[in-house]
Design goal:
The chain is mainly α and 368 residues long. It is built from 12 helices and no strands.
């Protein structure tokens, strides 16, 4: 991996910009290693071992820059703001957000264009990005069901109630009517979202349960016709190729012959689909709470007594800020550029609200 190869070939005299760059690299590597150690302290088993291995690799990179600097290592410098922020998050939360940010940080490594970074170091950083991507994917699967409900609930609340408030206000009705319409929209939407999410997740889990192997089937395994080996058909029906199904069935039948525990009901896929979709109550509660919190924002100006155009402007601005935040969070978790996701979320939300406002103006003029 990345050692100190090539360091001895560097001349003793280094330019000041080179020294500053190498010291920064050294500080960044130390900080990144600390991030992985902090994350490892909150994990166990395989994930902990992987994170510690990443920290060890960053330590090798650190040794490279330390050896290159030699007597010119100077006083320790601070890592860049992004890496320091990651370290703070890792110490306090150790969540999938940190892994998603670390994934992007590893992918932006400058080593590929630096002549004093070895090819192995540049390759390490690219591989690290994929390792962290895999770890982050595990975390995303664990929270995907509840998080999906939370994000969709918050955005639905923001956009639908802003659209409702703008549409009602554009017809020229009194301020109190706009406020009560917003409250009614909040309650109706939150209850509808919660109930709908519960039914959706419960139905999905029931479908998965219906597709899962029946544990009682294991009891008939010793009586199988070994010559016919219909067990291979089970694995073929569950998605394995004929060859892979035959090999899997042969292993199971061998285990039966050796009087070991059969493995018919063991998982073929590594992902627990039940875990990935979350629980019905968890998704319903998240959906209700986040829709309500999102729907509350557009009516805050009216709750505090603002009226007319100023209230609408404040409502639009508050919702815009919330849309940017939720879009950025989704971008971070998905490993995508958070700014682009935030702007996309803002454009969609404001666009829907604008259409409703224009329709309200039209209906208000017609009724008037």
């Amino acid at each position: 991996m990345a050692g100190t190869a090539g360091v001895s070939d560097v001349t003793a005299q280094h330019s000041a910009p080179d020294l500053r760059r190498w010291r920064k690299y050294l500080a960044d590597e130390r900080a990144e290693a600390e991030v992985y150690r902090e994350l490892a302290g909150r994990r166990s088993g395989e994930e902990r071992a992987i994170l510690l291995a990443l920290a060890e690799a960053e330590g090798r990179h650190e040794a490279h820059w330390a050896a290159l600097l030699g007597d010119d290592i100077g006083k320790p410098v601070r890592a860049d703001a992004r890496t320091r922020f990651l370290a703070v998050l890792a110490r306090r939360f150790g969540s999938v957000f940190v892994l998603a940010l670390a994934q992007r940080a590893e992918a932006r490594s400058p080593y590929a264009d630096d002549p004093q970074a070895t090819p192995a170091m540049a390759a390490d950083e690219r591989i690290h990005a994929e390792v962290v991507r895999g770890l982050a994917a595990r975390g995303r699967k664990r929270l995907s069901g509840t998080f999906r409900a939370a994000v969709f609930g918050a955005n639905d609340g923001l956009v639908s109630n802003l659209a409702l408030v703008l549409g009602i206000a554009a017809t020229g009705v009194e301020n109190s009517f706009v406020l009560f319409s917003g409250i009614a929209g909040l309650l109706a939407g939150a209850l509808s979202m919660g109930a709908g999410e519960y039914v959706s997740v419960r139905s999905q889990r029931e479908l998965l349960e219906a597709s899962s192997p029946d544990p009682e089937t294991d009891h008939v395994m010793p009586d199988l016709n070994v010559g016919a080996n219909e067990l291979a058909l089970v694995y073929r029906a569950r998605g394995l190729s004929p060859e892979a199904a035959a090999r899997r069935a042969e292993r199971v039948l061998t285990a039966i012959t050796a009087q070991e525990q059969p493995m018919l009901t063991g998982p073929i896929e590594a992902v627990d689909d039940h875990e990935a979709i979350g629980t019905g109550l968890g998704a319903a509660f998240s959906s209700f709470c986040f829709f309500a919190s999102g729907a509350l924002i557009p009516i805050l100006p009216f709750i505090f007594g603002m009226q007319g155009v100023p209230a609408l402007i404040v409502s639009v601005v508050l919702v815009g800020i919330a849309l940017i935040v939720t879009g950025a969070v989704v971008g971070l978790l998905s490993g995508a550029p958070p700014l682009l996701r935030a702007l996309r979320q803002l454009a969609i939300g404001w666009g829907a609200a604008l259409v409703t406002y224009l329709l309200g103006l039209l209906f208000g003029a017609t009724l008037g």
